[in-house]
Write a structure and sequence with these properties.
Blueprint lengths: L9 H6 L5 H38 L4 H5 L3 H20 L2 H6 L5 H10 L4 H26 L20 H23 L8 H15 L1 H4 L5 H11 L5 H23 L23 H7 L4
Helix pairs in contact: 2-4, 2-7, 4-9, 6-7, 6-12, 7-11, 8-9, 8-12, 11-12
Length: 292
């Protein structure tokens, strides 16, 4: 199905008469607030799921925790649950419309490309941080004291026993790999519709294998969401620097080998009938034929 570019799309905002900067910001917010709200809700849902499955599989009083003695197996199951959560969000109606960034690092990467306007990027990032914090607070309200237990700790992401340097390198590496996969799949005719699946599989894999080193974040908003109610700020700088740096490095490698024009849009899933508020080249690329 073709993407709709209905009222309030970026093209219409840009074609409007020039306005005072503040008026322009207000007009953009008025046109695009549904996408901002969706981004907040999507990360909020992700954080509720993270807390729920961490309580289920790690809380000492959980029957599942008692039944599964292997920490590795429990981590794999948490990874599977979170990977499926990410896939469900990306392919949900909200994810199809907002682009399902869920992550300031992803938004900043597409801002660097010019696919997201500075105003939209600012509101997306603010929404993501708000959604992350509210999601964990909501999970605490639903799950009670269980989410605060030392075995759960609000699903916090902190450096592992090998220290901050190892956590930084690990976060940099997994963020680089995720963005590399997103760019290569979302801009390919053959596999673009599977971009969300690839992202979810990587989330599951990273939680299973990388979490002991850094807690597996890749996302400043996700980390802050857990840090605020838990008051655990260990290595917070790592999660605000390594993920965006890793994704921007992936972008630089991609555009140096494929060219800036190879990036079509900022959505992870575009073959749908939802409007697109980005600097989108999808319709033109479809008309000429997407690269394989």
């Amino acid at each position: 199905m073709e993407t709709q570019h209905g009222p309030g799309t970026r093209a219409e905002v840009l074609s409007a008469p020039a306005a005072h900067p503040l008026e322009s910001i207000v007009n953009t917010f008025a046109a695009h607030w549904p996408e901002y709200l969706m981004e907040a809700a999507e990360l909020g849902i992700f954080m509720v799921s993270a807390c729920l499955f961490t309580v289920l599989l790690e809380h000492p009083a959980s029957a599942v925790r008692v039944a599964i003695g292997s920490p590795m197996l429990r981590r794999v199951l948490i990874g599977l649950a979170m990977g499926l959560t990410a896939i469900a969000i990306i392919y949900s109606p909200w994810g199809k419309q907002s682009g399902a960034h869920l992550n300031p690092s992803i938004t900043l990467t597409f801002l660097r490309l010019g696919k997201v306007s500075p105003v939209d990027a600012a509101f997306y990032i603010a929404a993501q941080f708000i959604g992350g914090v509210v999601g964990v607070i909501l999970a605490a309200a639903l799950l009670g004291g269980a989410v605060a237990d030392k075995a759960v700790r609000y699903a916090v992401t902190v450096p592992g026993p090998r220290g901050a340097a190892t956590a930084f390198v690990a976060e940099l590496g997994i963020s680089f790999l995720l963005m590399t996969a997103v760019l290569n799949s979302s801009n390919s005719a053959r596999v673009a519709r599977f971009t969300g699946v690839f992202a979810g599989v990587l989330v599951a894999t990273f939680i299973s294998l990388e979490a002991p080193f850094s807690g597996m974040s890749m996302n400043p908003a996700r980390t802050l969401g857990s840090a605020v109610p838990s008051r655990l700020w260990d290595g917070l700088w790592i999660y605000f620097t390594a993920p965006p740096l890793g994704m921007l490095l992936a972008l630089e490698l991609y555009i140096r080998t494929r060219g800036v024009g190879a990036v079509i849009c900022a959505k992870l899933h575009h073959q749908n009938n939802k409007r697109c508020i980005f600097n989108c080249g999808y319709a033109a690329k479809v008309a000429r034929g997407l690269p394989s």
